[in-house]
Amino acid sequence: MSDQHAAEQTPAPSFTVETAKVLAEVAHNRQKDKLKRPYKDHVLAVGDALADFDDDIRIAGYLHDIAEDTPMTRQALLDMGVSERAVEIIERVTNRLHSNPDDYQAGIREIAEDHDAALVKIADNAHNSLPERVQALADKWPDRPPVTKYRDARPVLYAAVEVEEIRKILARVNPWLLEELDDRLDEEDTTDYENLSYDDGVPAAPEGDAAGREAPGATSSGER
């Protein structure tokens, strides 16, 4: 077999979810968060939170901060085999690439224009909003006002995806936010349940129950 033919038969290397996980660990290995904790724990948690979605979204989850916090470039990611779609999601959630990097909420609105990027950012937001982390930050800087940007961002991000998608993410990374989600949905529900009725076109229920038995007092076809 010629070298040329062998090259044609060799499949292109595949950049897998597991590869993304390893790359995230290596790329963020020496970084610390505001609480001096290993930053890689955060990016791994975000990727893990997206386990119910497709590989591109999961890869983008693990690598969501790689363009923000490391020298890694778009071309380098593509050369490693990261798909165009995954790279686009990564770029969409990268703050320094937004139209106005200094305006956090404007960046959130840009992210929410893309369904897949919104999923990744919801996972990121949820992990940053863990009660233990929020309390630890408050204890470390008691004189600072409480951080509200994550809470304020959630309605914008949630509006970009399906409710069940939100539930899947929160259940994995921050179940405490599920109650907040339910409360928000209750507030948005304008249904008048007290006066709820069937449409006129819906036929009345037949006499007797669903199993075909007659209602009490009804006469069977063989009785007079």
TrEMBL record:
It holds the Pfam family HD. Residues 187-224 are annotated as: Disordered. It comes from the Bacteria. InterPro entries: HD/PDEase_dom, HD_domain. Residues 35-138 form the HD/PDEase domain. This is HD/PDEase domain-containing protein. It comes from Pseudarthrobacter oxydans (Arthrobacter oxydans).
